[in-house]
Design goal:
This protein is an alpha/beta fold and 222 residues long. The chain has 8 helices and 8 strands, in the order αααβαβαββαβαβαββ. The chain has a single domain, classed as Rossmann fold. Helix 5 links the parallel strand 2 and strand 3.
Length: 222
């Protein structure tokens, strides 16, 4: 699939099939045991990402690319950042707007759109938690190189790590008709991703494994 085809498929999935599930998963509502492990894993990964950025972000402009329902964007704003929360799903953006704490409204702007659109301006930092997990190495390299001219500091993003379990799930998932399956995570190794990038540096940060949630944080600097 091309980058555009994958992006459109992900948008359709989150704006339709997964909207209510995602809204519940990212709230305090009770969830099943499996989804509870995913929620716990995402909470841990959010902390990993935040730990790579300054505790005081006052005066900094930060892009949350793939902001979903806004949890990471809220934490960045609490640190003083001016945050642009961007997601390809208008439904998720609507949830994020509705959940924005009153005292943070002046720090947050939520938009539906593509992270590569240059109309969003320049940023001191960019975060992208689990929003690139459906893309190929070449697509991710193109995203990083496309964002680099608008990035003054670092970008912290996550990928699905190349583990035996995820590789098995990926191969099995490809057996189903494309119309019958949700977007499939594409596992990556940091070394192979680094070799696909023509500019900038990539650093392996940390991995979180919580039940059915497995994600690897990486740092990109132009």
């Amino acid at each position: 699939m091309t980058y555009e085809a994958t992006r459109n498929r992900v948008e359709t999935y989150f704006d339709g099939t997964a909207t209510r599930t995602w809204e519940r998963l990212t709230s305090d509502a009770p969830v099943s045991g499996i989804r509870a492990t995913v929620r716990a894993g995402r909470d841990r990964m959010r902390d990993v990402i935040l730990n790579q950025l300054p505790a005081d972000l006052t005066g900094k402009r930060v892009l949350d690319a793939g902001c979903g329902t806004g949890a990471l964007a809220f934490e960045l704003a609490e640190r003083g950042a001016e945050v642009i929360g961007l997601d390809i799903s208008p439904q998720l953006v609507g949830i994020a707007r509705n959940r924005t704490p009153h005292h943070l409204h002046h720090k947050l702007t939520f938009r539906a759109g593509d992270m590569l659109e240059d109309t969003h301006g320049t940023f001191d930092h960019i975060v992208a938690m689990d929003s690139l997990i459906y893309y190929s190495a070449d697509d991710i390299a193109n995203v990083l190189e496309g964002l680099a001219p608008r990035l003054r500091g670092k970008m912290i993003f996550t990928v699905a790590p190349r583990t035996p379990l995820l590789m098995l799930m990926w191969r099995v998932g490809k057996l189903f008709p494309r119309s019958d399956r949700s977007p499939t995570m594409v596992p990556h190794s940091p070394a192979r991703l680094a070799s696909a990038i023509n500019a900038g540096t990539l650093r392996d940060v940390d991995r979180v494994h919580s039940g059915f949630y497995i994600s690897n944080a990486l740092e990109f600097t132009p």
